[in-house]
């Protein structure tokens, strides 16, 4: 190699490292500035009372306790439906079918589903649950719609996690006299646990912050929900209404701060799960 | 029931259209060690894996002919394959403990066989670890991760796991190929011990190992069982010239 080309290689190498470093810093700065922005505008109203009291005067004062509960209920319903369905589909796709047109259609369909904007899910949920099935605006309609929305993510991540379990471990299970279902439940799924959990938690992060889906299917009631068949308001919807209708920008920012912090916590937890050794 | 635990008659095996084994006739008698030798790709591991139907797991594979284990056709469509695998245990080429503790490694097979009593499981764990001469070393380390043991201990743990579900036959697929000479010697000594209770079929790359541990030896070449005889006769007076070439080192 000539010294000329060696110099050139060295230059491009350094350039590459430099550029990627600045881009990384840029991403981090962007995220931090959003957080700081929310903190700057929203921290003034932040107190324990904000978390544990009911909103007053349409949300101009008071707290967001029922809204936090509604958000939690929506996510719980969504995961309760999407997790078994998603893991079941992933097991079926990876363990019980040969690759063929059926798996291709299911996989393609689930990939397309992942790319659909959430407002379309909202519209679909509205048409199906709220109108056709006459469930009205309620937490159940919203939870089911959210479940549809996160389903592709759960299927995809579970599938990858299941595929990453070495074939030898399965063989070993069979050689010890295990049936197919024992191999799946006692070897494959425990081995894939971390990957599957990560997918679930990322889905949870998406469901917590979802607005369009929820506003069409759960409505905007600010009351504390007493059952899954009542209308309710999630945090992001609350933020949207406070800001859009000019009720209180301060309260909107405080709600956003709580919401974003919550999503951050969920994602940190996912990172922790991934990095942890089995 | 015939005198043989495993009996293959005109057994053929195909991967798709490739004929991996051709008209195999072999008989394995109780409490003997049978070694399968031959160059790489001759079908010796395949023959081993047919005996507990592990080959079923390969898409497009097909068995033609008769293979009786304990006197029953194991490729009969009504045959219970999990029951077969409980009676015909397997030890793999590379030590492959589950990513869990020593105790859990052995308890796994016992539990899936339907035994859930804590006392019984602990007793089985002790019995099987003692049988492979690991109990005194590991009895205080039952919660130690199995994959952190030395290779020698790992392979013996795998043998303990296989015999914990009380099979009658043990299939060993080159069990010493990733072990050093001292560990290999220990496994070979263990095979002598295990022979008293189990019938063993072992695939090995090493003719010397076959000569040391086995009572019967089969030599496979390109899917044919060239010769099958008492180990002593096969090594001292091979009947086939191809066997002679292989054991004298002219081939393979």
How would you portray this structure in words?
Chain A is 77% helix and 1% strand. With 278 residues, chain A is an all-alpha fold. In chain A, α3 runs parallel beside α6, α9 packs antiparallel against α12 and α11 packs antiparallel against α12. The longest helix of chain A has 40 residues. The model of chain A has no long low-confidence stretch (mean pLDDT 92). By secondary structure, chain B is of the alpha/beta class. Chain B has a single domain, classed as Rossmann fold (3-Layer(aba) Sandwich). Chain B is 36% helix and 27% strand. Chain B is built from 10 helices and 10 strands. In chain B, a hairpin with a 2-residue loop joins β9 and β10. In chain B, α3 runs parallel beside α6. The radius of gyration of chain B is 18 Å and the shape is globular. Chain B starts with a strand and ends in a 5-residue tail after the last helix.
